[in-house]
## 1
Amino acid sequence: MDNDVRCAAIGEKYFGAGRHVRNVICITLGTGVGSGIFIDDQLFRGPKDIAGEIGHMTMDPNGPKCNCGNYGCLEAYVGAPNIARRTREAIMAGEPSVVTELVDGDLYRITPKIVTMAALKGDRLARRIMQDTAELIGLALANVVNMFNPELLIIGGGVAQAGDLLLSPIKQTVKSRAMREHAKMVEVVAAELGEDAGVIGAAWLNYLSDAGLMP
Ligand SMILES: [Zn+2]
């Protein structure tokens, strides 16, 4: 797990949306996609300290190449640069979209924030890109929910600033795709700490390590 993702997950678990819950998965959506898995209040690290790589869950073995060298990983679709790439490719293939105007015709300036703005204006392509993004994230999370039976999923990171545009279809997909007993109990919420989550998590880790206690 990359350190930023870990710190943000720890911040949210102990001081944000997860503070009253013991079994929590915190997913961070940004340039990369990662997660922190908390089981009975403990961060699950794995023997090499690299557990939680939800971004590299294979969604389609024949999908686009991912940064990790594999193909069709979740991150290869929903990492921030890949949300931009999918939008750009659709426009280059001829789909009309207000995104083109929002970037003054320079399709390499597309960001998830711009796609979100276009979707909120009702742009059909942008809405579809965001819907597909949410569904892929929801599918990956449904798999994780079936494995770990968490009480809470926290959705954070820069891309999550799209708010309900992403959160509602993520929630819907998790609820419809996870096994019934899992789906019934799991709650899906937005992160509470925003960009401060990482700093708060890092400070807490430092404090614990000085005190000789690691979470
Ligand atoms: Zn990957």
## 2
Amino acid sequence: MKWMLTCEQVVSKTSAFVDRDMSWTERLRMRVHLAMCRVCREYVRQVALVVGALRILPPQLPGEARRKRLMRLFRTA
Ligand SMILES: [Zn+2]
């Protein structure tokens, strides 16, 4: 089904999804995929945890720089 996101697409959109920076149709596509894919569900859950943790850290770095650094760490973990 063309409408379905692939796991790769879900991963690439995770940051925007967690930040609620996407249209409701995109969110719906994410949710449909996440409802069926345990791997992506776990990935999004962990990113959301990390992003949530970042928000309560002192702002020593601009938000975007911190997030990128953390996302990089996360991807190599
Ligand atoms: Zn998936």
